[in-house]
Amino acid sequence: MPWPSRKRDKGAVADKKEPDAKIAKTEEETSDQEEEEKSAKPPAGSSKSGWKNWKKAKESESGGEESKITYCHWLLKSEPESRLEKGVDVKFSVDDLKAQPNQTTCWDGVRNYQARNFLRAMKLGQQAFFYHSNCKEPGIVAIVKIVKEAYPDHTQFDQKDPHYDSTSRKENPKWSMVDVQFVRMTKRFIPLSELKAHHLAHKADGGPLKDMMLFTRQRLSIQPLTQEQFEFVLSLEEQKPH
């Protein structure tokens, strides 16, 4: 029997601490709550030089060739703290994933068309960051991999599930899901506030996080990452927290 659905796009609630957080008004736009509002004021300074040093190292490794702008990695948001949605607790932390048989689960309940399309674009073996969302300190906690490509999401047909969709038909399902498997914890927790500091610095100097969807389309619970974005975030594991 599957676990309760992970944090999803539809029905996101406003942050209690930030009552002015924007709420989407259409199904196409409805997704994760605007967590950028949760982040603390980004620490001043050092991101720019850190990006340039990282870039020099990567160019040295690749002979100076730039990475192609393609999405081959992902960021998956999930709520680690209890929250009831239509009477069902949608909590699902990385510890919940690790407790699953073979540390594998289906990523069900996505009800945003763009996020669904990202699910359908995922390929076997691709890696994703597991991101704790809608909690006291959002951020990246682990790495998972895609172990089964997109197939129909069973929860759309389950009338008892909070993500039931009466308009979806089994002969032509609207919604898809993938299976993911735990790979490892990140070497340290990488908080949203730290990612935001790099994002702001990269907007000024052209770094890889300048267009990161965590900040340009922050409500989406399924987000693509370029190779360069994924590698830069991984490089933060080796740095001391700001």
Automatic annotation (TrEMBL):
Function: Specifically binds 5-hydroxymethylcytosine (5hmC), suggesting that it acts as a specific reader of 5hmC.
Keywords linked to the UniProt accession: Nucleus, Phosphoprotein
Major subcellular site: nucleus
GO cellular component terms, A-Z: nucleus
Record keyword Acetylation present: no
Biased composition (Low complexity): 41-52
Basic and acidic residues composition bias: residue spans: 10-28
Record-given protein name: Thymocyte nuclear protein 1
Organism in which the protein naturally occurs: Xiphorhynchus elegans (elegant woodcreeper)
